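Support request from a user on the community tier.

User writes: "When I paste my structure tokens into the form, the page sometimes reloads and wipes my input. The last time it worked, I copied everything first. Here is what I submitted, just in case something in the input itself triggers the reload:"
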């Protein structure tokens, strides 16, 4: 395996969040929840005599993505016809870009688990229209397919990397970071489960003795990052085995079988010539002035890397915590809301990345839904009580769990249930005395050098205080009393 190196390039398709379609004023709807074929018009259906009109907002969104990826925006842009025949393509061709895309030659720096950074070059990002959606049905023993054209004509931006990626981890890191950038820009919501962002890796392997690339395969329409990583790992292993067994690899389009966790051949790969690209005769050339580019550049928001650096500088966070908080715009916005309400930035980060993230993962929900259960101001109130030593961490975790289940206010929950931390030294002193008096054998063990009994003794005191004792005070008083016994 060490003699072989994966060589991977990514094609990522992202639907743009415009109100209307790429070449008509037909509205864009949610292709999952909307009734089939209710958002169609003559242009998106490819009816004879219709003429497309370029969506200016889609152009500007594409330029924003290009600038965020450090791309050039060429002054000359052109749309082309890409001909192929498939049921979800109503015209029999797709309006896309080929020789003259909207953005070219960029890059994205990704962070890897070993602490290093790697630059992945972006070859291009081009605009096109999305296809419809096939729905496969089996009823009464008969299988057939239905076509929903709601998605046909939706603006689609295809981002194409150079083959600079050499592992599933790198592909995953690139895709996650690109998704975050698209979310920050407000051009795509990143919901891969709905197909608004789809990833297609081009995969080949290179032997250590090779001086050129070998045949590649493309895995189509992956709608989760987990499937992306697993399909790459499987396909790399399959290709290595094929070359080592002298079977070779044919250029092909592959699908990912989620059930069997393997790639399957769908068809042998077409070449660009087979698509018969030629300039779209019904659309004008798009000339992009440098003034227009600068207007778009001025609209760019703070992007993930810049926000991460600001979190490190302004809030004193570690690079690791800042990166986790800014990897998703919704998480970053929630965190800033917590801090803006007056919570300590480091404590807030610990609670968001710890206990609150655990609840999100346990419920298999999304951060978009978190505010319906725990608002930033409510978490800030909890964090303030922890920092003020009104609550110890175990009790605060219980309060957070109740907030999650009921949406309740933390201060009200603490007051109603009498959960405030016990910091009265006389009360703690009495609890410690009671535990020491009730456990003479453990005290003898401690005095004879078995200091590991300190933990169980501490636990007994906390139990006597119903879990609400101030751990630091309990430890200090317990340590002092045991030291006094040792001295005696």
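"...and here is what came back when it finally went through:"
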């Amino acid at each position: 395996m060490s003699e072989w190196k994966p060589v991977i390039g990514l094609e990522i398709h992202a639907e743009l969040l415009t109100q209307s379609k790429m070449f008509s004023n037909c509205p864009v709807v949610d292709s999952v929840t909307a009734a089939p074929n209710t958002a169609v018009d003559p242009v998106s259906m490819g009816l004879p005599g219709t003429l497309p009109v370029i969506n200016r907002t889609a152009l500007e969104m594409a330029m924003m993505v290009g600038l965020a990826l450090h791309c050039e925006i060429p002054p000359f842009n052109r749309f082309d016809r890409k001909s192929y025949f498939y049921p979800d393509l109503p015209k029999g061709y797709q309006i896309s870009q080929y020789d003259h895309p909207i953005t070219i030659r960029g890059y994205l720096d990704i962070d890897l688990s070993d602490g290093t950074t790697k630059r992945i070059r972006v070859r291009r990002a081009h605009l096109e229209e999305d296809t419809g959606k096939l729905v496969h049905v089996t009823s009464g023993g008969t299988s057939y397919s239905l076509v929903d054209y709601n998605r046909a004509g939706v603006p689609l931006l295809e981002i194409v990397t150079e083959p600079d990626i050499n592992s599933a981890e790198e592909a995953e890191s690139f895709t996650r970071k690109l998704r975050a950038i698209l979310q920050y820009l407000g051009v795509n919501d990143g919901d891969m489960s709905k197909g608004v962002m789809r990833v297609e890796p081009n995969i080949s392997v290179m032997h250590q003795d090779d001086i050129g690339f070998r045949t590649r395969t493309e895995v189509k329409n992956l709608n989760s990052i987990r499937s992306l990583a697993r399909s790459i790992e499987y396909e790399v292993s399959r290709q290595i085995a094929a070359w080592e067994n002298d079977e070779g690899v044919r250029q092909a389009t592959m699908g990912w079988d989620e059930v069997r966790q393997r790639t399957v051949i769908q068809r042998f790969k077409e070449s660009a010539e087979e698509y018969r690209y030629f300039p779209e005769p019904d659309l004008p050339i798009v000339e992009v002035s440098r003034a227009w580019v600068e207007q778009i550049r001025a609209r760019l928001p703070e992007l993930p890397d810049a926000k991460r650096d600001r979190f490190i500088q302004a809030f004193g966070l570690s690079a690791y915590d800042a990166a986790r908080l800014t990897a998703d715009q919704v998480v970053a916005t929630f965190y800033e809301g917590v801090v803006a309400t007056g919570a300590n930035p480091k404590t807030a980060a610990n609670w968001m990345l710890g206990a609150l993230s655990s609840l999100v993962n346990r419920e298999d929900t999304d951060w978009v839904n978190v505010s319906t259960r725990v608002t930033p101001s409510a978490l800030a109130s909890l964090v303030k009580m922890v920092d003020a030593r009104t609550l110890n961490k175990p009790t605060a975790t219980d309060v957070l769990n109740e907030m999650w289940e009921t949406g309740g206010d933390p201060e009200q929950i603490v007051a109603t249930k009498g959960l405030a931390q016990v910091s009265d030294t006389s009360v703690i002193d009495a609890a410690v005395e009671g535990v020491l008096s009730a456990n003479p054998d453990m005290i003898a063990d401690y005095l004879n050098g078995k200091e590991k009994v300190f933990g169980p003794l501490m636990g007994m005191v906390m139990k006597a205080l119903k879990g609400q004792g101030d751990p630091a005070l309990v430890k200090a008083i317990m340590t002092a009393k045991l030291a006094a016994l040792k001295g005696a």
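Agent notes: The reload is a front-end session timeout and is unrelated to the input. The radius of gyration is 29 Å. The mean pLDDT is 91. Escalated to web team.
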